[in-house]
TrEMBL record, chain A:
It comes from the Eukaryota. Coiled coil: none annotated. The keyword Glycoprotein does not apply. Residues 68-319 form the Cytochrome c assembly protein domain. Its main location: membrane. Keywords: Chloroplast, Cytochrome c-type biogenesis, Membrane, Plastid, Thylakoid, Transmembrane, Transmembrane helix. It comes from Musa acuminata var. zebrina. This is Cytochrome c biogenesis protein CcsA.
TrEMBL record, chain B:
Coiled coil: none annotated. Its main location: membrane. It is a multi-pass membrane protein. GO terms for cellular component: membrane. It comes from Musa acuminata subsp. malaccensis. The keyword Transmembrane helix applies. Residues 130-391, 452-542 form the ResB-like domain. Residues 58-103 are annotated as: Disordered. InterPro entries: Cyt_c_bgen_Ccs1/CcsB/ResB (IPR023494), ResB-like_domain (IPR007816). This is (wild Malaysian banana) hypothetical protein.
Amino acid sequence: MIFTTLEHILTHISFSIISIVITIHLMILLVREIVGLRDSLEKGMIATFFSITGLLVSRWISSGHFPLSNLYESLIFLSCSFSIIHMISKMGNHKNDLSTITAPSTIFTQGFATSGFLTEMHQSAILVPALQSQWLMMHVSMMLLSYAALLCGSLLSVALLVITFRKNIDIFCKGNNFLIKPFFFGEIQYLNEKRSVFKNTSFLSFRNYYKYQLTQRLDYWSYRVISLGFTFLTIGILCGAVWANEAWGSYWNWDPKETWAFITWTIFAIYLHTRTRIHIRSRTNQSLQSMNSALVASIGFLIIWVCYFGINLLGIGLHSYGSFTLTST
Amino acid sequence: MSSLLLNPNRAFSPLSRQVLKASFSSLCSISNARILLGSRPTAHRVVGFKPRASRDSFDAEALPESNTKKKSRNNNKKIILFGSTPPPLSEERGGSAGNSSGKPAAEGSSWVFLQRAFKRVLAVLSNLPLAIGEMFTIAALMALGTVIDQGEAPDYYFQKYPEENPVFGFVTWRWVLALGFDHMFTSPVFLGMLILLAASLMACTYTTQIPLVKVARRWSFIHSAETIRKQDFADSLPQASIQDLGIILMGAGYEIFLKGPSLYAFKGMAGRFAPIGVHLAMLLIMAGGTLSAAGSFRGSVTVPQGLNFVVGDVMNPNGVLSFPSQEFDTEVHVNRFYMDYYDSGEVSQFYTDISLYSLDGKELMRKTIRVNDPLRYGGITIYQTDWGFSALQITKNGEGPFNLAMAPLQLNGDKKLFGTFLPTGDADSPNVKGISMLARDLQSIVLYDQEGKFAGVRRPSSKLPIDIDGTRIVIEDAIGSSGLDLKTDPGVPLVYAGFGALMLTTCISYFSHSQIWALQDGTTVIIGGKTNRAMLEFRDEVNRLLDEVPELVTIDKNFNG
């Protein structure tokens, strides 16, 4: 009983904090930069992380097994992974734009998990015989970490695509500003100052320069984050294969979920291969190549969702936990 | 010794790093030792292969703007790209050229033609866009394999993809069946793509990756300030000494080579090697998978508690390489089958107590298996996968016990239903009446009377009698049957080795191989660097390290590096 209350409280705390973080982000974006608010953003993300982790731990204690047995728990774990990635990216102290991806992603997954769609799943489910293994912890947590990382990375690529194509469509459009601004928390002040000075003359070239830098950075960080996620995905799939050899009698069954995980793996392998000849010096070639890889990453973004959600919703195959008690091969 | 020659830095770095940390003043002697250690392999190679060309290139590098001959320019460029020592590429080229010039005299032109064709095929296969295309195709085929229901009877496809109303305007059952998409993952199209991908992997590893590593393993100094400035990252530090830079880089985990005014440092060489490992691991997994498909046995059996079977009787060969082993003459006895339940009544685990006997009746092994914990004996693995209701043991009016066989009425995944019937009165009369008993699991039996009305529920463990139409029935026991899957799979060790290698090499592939060159030019140190993956992190790191390099306040005119 106490755990149920605790879970309730922690869910609400994490959701409120992340909402506040998002609101502050929006305020900074739309109104003006306030230095004090930026620190509170970081603290807010850390507090969110701890309350989500606390939620998972309390579920673990109350149910007696690792809290990754149904969609609700995996969504909570996904938002936890997003906040982990957020904190890691902040720890490195590099200027990357991951926080603009991780914070909204956290609120979306957390919001979806706690929304009405999945109410019947909130109760911690019993563990079916096939799931009672130490591999559960390794396999599922690795898969979700990789989903989180790959989603972040491919969203950066999507952002890159959007920005590049916007440039071609309406470079003078005022709305463009709002699109770029979120990625510029650091530079926006500087840009504002410059804008007043170079109002008419070199304003455009400045914007182009920053846009070039920004796309470079997006490209680079999406590559790094996707490589990390790809590593996790490999480990996750292989752990799953070893587990399947223990539980189902074969290390590969061409089960829909397995197959889609392999498709995801292949797509991101393609992404990594499109990057191998990036050492081309010319700018146009390079941007063309980064566009190509960004396109592949955006395909990957859709495929992760099919793999993670689509197959679960269809409820086909061996991975459809929730309604069945014994695996039937 | 040869490994030491190839990679002297690895063998000696821990020692020298310690010494360095211990005393700053000993740097000179250590850098001398470095030079000795480092220069030995160079000297070895240079003398061995191409002393003149390499000396030329050194001179040319020192004077990049000098208008040397065009040919030596080219040479120069290549060497800057690949490293200053003569690359083995040229050695190979020379060797193969020798072969091709030597062979025709002996064996005629067909050999040359074959060799050329082989090279052409290699070049085509190692083409990156082709490999990407293959991966895309495989991904698409797999996606298709999950969209089209697999392994159904032809009738199913006739109905689902009728010719009158094709899906997307052209997909009919003819397409599906002709291409074998009803069993996608064993269809010739899919397997052919996998084989093509494997060929591409091999070709790419052979023609692209291995030469790259040969080049990367060769550490090299750059003696021209211009070339250093052309690197991805370039900076210059006024009033600094190259030794200070060396110490700071060493503190950051770089391997350092110092020779006179030039410095070469690198870190994360494994990141260069790892992609080869990834490709080899993929090939290993594919080979293991092929062995699994060709040489395994599978079998599946439902055994009532207390009965036994011989392994060889249930095993079916899977492929052409499936040869039975002597362990197939083992007898499996199911001692007991039982389930554990949660408080809510749902099954928490299935257990089967299994004994293995040799044919002469000796017990070889005994184990209680469950889902996730199979029995392994001599290459045979026995899995707990299914269950059934074999028989119900009852006493009727104190007589018995009788065993009533349970019939499966509904087997829909886990929603199973078993039933049996106990005739009452005259069993030979045309309309037999009796008591029906239904069960969803081994825990509770639902009884219905002669009219089909609900009579009651009894648990086998309670031994509580129930009176139906004057008949007193006691349910003594519920005998389950255990669904076991058996297999032998010779590919598993290979596949697991591939898994291990793949995990390791993918992790290592995340790290990037960074190289730094520096040149002492008067009191200024010119620094250039490049890395293959983490460019921005590398830039940040080097900037941070360069900030740590102490500035020489008093300019020493006699300073000489």
